[in-house]
Each structure stands twice: as structure tokens, then as C-alpha cells.
Design brief:
This protein is 43% helix and 17% strand. The termini are far apart. Helix 11 crosses helix 12. Helix 4 links the parallel strand 1 and strand 2. The strands form three sheets. Strands 1, 2, 3, 4, 5, 10, 12 and 13 form an eight-stranded mixed sheet that branches. The protein has helices spanning 4-25, 31-34, 36-45, 56-69, 82-94, 107-115, 187-196, 198-209, 219-228, 239-247, 277-288, 290-298, 324-327, 330-341, and strands at residues 47-52, 74-79, 102-104, 119-120, 142-150, 152-154, 179-182, 214-216, 233-235, 237-238, 252-254, 261-271, 319-321. It has 345 residues and is α/β, with parallel strands linked by helices.
């Protein structure tokens, strides 16, 4: 016989089970579904301002993807070098005119901003997909993409058997006067000192300087000159710069050395005085979400997220990340580079 009380109880149990299922599954869905409160409040704020060192073409793709995912939230971007981004943010803060909501740039910038108490903790659930190398343990930043140091070479001028397997192979006499070097990537020095230790690292760098490398300003420029045949091989150039030149049909590639590959983080963080705090969190969460990281991979960069595979041939598990604390020694390593290799000529 029909029991009205039992029917009501069964309905309530089914309802509660459905709610619990949705809650439990929340950690595995997109950021907008997982925490719609960010999106709802972000739409009320209407906009978000990002300071970044992402390339202009990458910014356009990133903006389009974000605004498509979150209609009603306009993404405005100020693009500059990490140094300029830092100076601008600090100057505005000192003047009491904080306007930036979030940053995606070099790790050293995030390190300084954190030291100045200008970043706020944001331990998004998306951070669970990043291993410890790619996130700040306290939740202040998460690495959107590490830039990998590489040795670019001209595929028509350098035979496969002549490719260096180790950094020390750059000391081969046949490369004397023929090496290129990117002055802007002076953290290559920090990587070598970490790899070999201070004493042996300094000895290697002094021997490398005796190879008389031709110094240029900029990774893309150096990779372009390698592709054009002006330089058969170079060092201290980021792999994504090489990939971008390669995509244009230039005969250039980069060596997968047997030594560890080094990389510098480019994290995202939420500013402590963000005028649009919910939109800032929504933006950072998008950047580190699976969708956002798949976009980063399509742009020719190495995503920091463990469950998104890099398109370029990098074994992310073997990467050694240069810490933002070491990156912050900018003046020290820039002077060391200039003392060793001279300025651009």
C-alpha cells in the first residue's frame, strides 16, 4: 500500500544525494562552475586589469579566450617587461593609486611584490594540478608557464653528430667566435652555477667567455640570427623564442641536452589592493585552469599544470626551476654577464 510518509522520505533522500553529488564533483569541473561566486561578482565589477610580460600576440589570444569563457568581464592588458611591470606597480602603490588587479610575469617580480605585501594568498583548487616546483607553498603565486633555457642551432649548418650533449660541449674549439649569446637571459649564469656548483660553475663560465661569443639583446633576435645563418649556434635563449622563429619556416631548432634543462617561472598572482578582487581571482583561476593551460600550450609555451602536455618537446619532469628568490638577484647576474661576455656588439 502507498505510504505518503515513506514517499516523502525517499524524495528527500534522493534530493540530498543529488546535492551531495554536485558538491563532490565540484572540484573536477571548470572554474566558472566550481565557484560561480567569482564570476557573478566579477560581472558586477565588469572589468579586470592585468599587468603581464606575455607577448602581444599571446595576449590577444588570452583575452579572447577569457572573455569568451566569462561574458560580461572585460579583460584589459598592460604589456611590458617584468622590470617595467614591477616599477609601474610599485610607483602606483606608493602614490596611492593602485589600479592593477593581477599579474602574470617573471618570478622575480612576484617575489618582490610578495615581499612588499602587495600580493594576496589565493589557494585555488586548480593549484592541486601543479606540483611543488610550479607554485608558491603559501599560495601567493602559481606558475602559468616556465620559460626553458635552450641552445638554438641552425639545422643546415650544424650536423646532428656535432650537436652538444652537455653545456661543456660549447667549449669545443670549433665554436670559438661562432657562438651567439642573448644578454637578456642572464639567469643562464644562475643555472650553470647551480648545476656545477660555484667554483666549477665560475670556471666553466670563464672558459665559455674565452670562446668570444657574439652578444645580442633579445632571445627572438638571437634565434632569428641563428636561423639566418649569421650564427650557427647560441646559448641563453628561451625555447619558446626558438619555436616562434621555427614556426615561420626558419631552419632553426634547439638542443635537448643530456644535462638538466633549466627554466624560469612566469607565475600569476592576485594583487592585495586589486580594485576588482573577484575578477582578479577569476582571471588567475582561468590562467591555471585546464582550459587556460591548454591555451598556453597551444601558444608554444610549457604549461605549468601537470595534466596538460606541452606541445613543444619538453620533459617537464626533468626541468629544474630557478627560484624567484634567485631570480631577484637581477643586478648581480646582469653585472656578471656583462663582466664575462661584454655588452651587445
Amino acid at each position: 500500500p502507498f505510504n505518503k510518509e515513506n514517499a516523502i522520505m525517499k524524495s528527500m533522500k534522493l534530493y540530498l544525494f543529488s546535492i551531495l553529488s554536485l558538491v563532490c564533483c565540484g572540484a573536477f569541473v571548470s572554474p566558472s562552475a566550481a565557484d560561480s561566486s567569482f564570476y557573478t561578482k566579477a560581472k558586477e565589477e565588469g572589468r579586470v586589469l592585468l599587468y603581464t610580460s606575455l607577448a602581444s600576440a599571446d595576449n590577444k589570444a588570452f583575452r579572447n579566450a577569457f572573455e569568451k569563457a566569462y561574458p560580461g568581464v572585460k579583460l584589459e592588458i598592460y604589456r611590458a617587461s617584468g622590470t617595467t611591470v614591477l616599477q609601474k606597480a610599485l610607483t602606483e602603490h606608493r602614490a596611492g593609486t593602485d589600479v592593477v588587479d593581477a599579474v602574470i610575469t617573471e618570478g622575480t617580480v612576484l617575489h618582490v611584490l610578495r615581499d612588499q605585501h602587495l600580493l594576496v594568498k589565493f589557494d585555488s583548487p586548480e593549484r592541486k594540478a601543479f606540483d611543488a616546483r610550479f607554485k608558491d607553498k603559501d599560495g601567493y603565486w602559481t606558475d602559468v608557464y616556465p620559460t626553458v633555457h635552450s641552445i638554438p642551432y641552425n639545422t643546415k649548418l650544424v650536423a646532428p653528430q656535432d650537436l652538444p650533449k652537455h653545456y661543456t660541449d660549447l667549449l669545443n674549439p670549433k665554436w670559438k667566435g661562432k657562438l651567439g649569446a642573448n644578454r637578456n637571459n642572464f639567469m643562464f649564469l644562475a643555472a650553470m652555477l647551480e648545476l656545477y656548483g660555484k667554483e666549477k660553475g665560475e670556471a666553466f663560465l670563464h672558459k665559455l667567455a674565452q670562446q668570444n661569443p657574439q652578444v645580442r639583446d633579445g632571445g627572438t633576435l638571437t634565434a632569428t640570427l641563428v636561423g639566418a645563418g649569421e650564427l650557427p649556434i647560441a646559448f641563453s635563449v628561451n625555447a619558446n623564442n626558438v619555436e616562434n622563429v621555427k614556426e615561420k619556416g626558419s631552419p632553426v631548432d634547439w638542443v635537448r641536452v643530456e644535462d638538466p634543462l633549466y627554466a624560469e617561472p612566469h607565475p600569476a598572482g592576485v594583487m592585495a589592493r586589486a580594485p576588482h578582487p573577484n575578477a582578479a581571482r577569476l582571471l588567475v583561476e582561468f590562467a591555471i585552469s585546464k582550459d587556460g593551460q591548454q591555451l598556453i600550450s597551444k601558444l608554444g609555451k610549457v604549461p605549468g599544470r601537470s595534466d596538460v602536455k606541452p606541445i613543444i618537446g619538453v620533459d617537464r619532469a626533468k626541468l629544474r626551476i630557478i627560484s624567484p628568490e634567485d631570480e631577484a638577484k637581477t643586478a648581480y647576474y646582469q653585472k656578471m654577464f656583462d663582466d664575462l661576455f661584454g655588452r651587445r656588439r
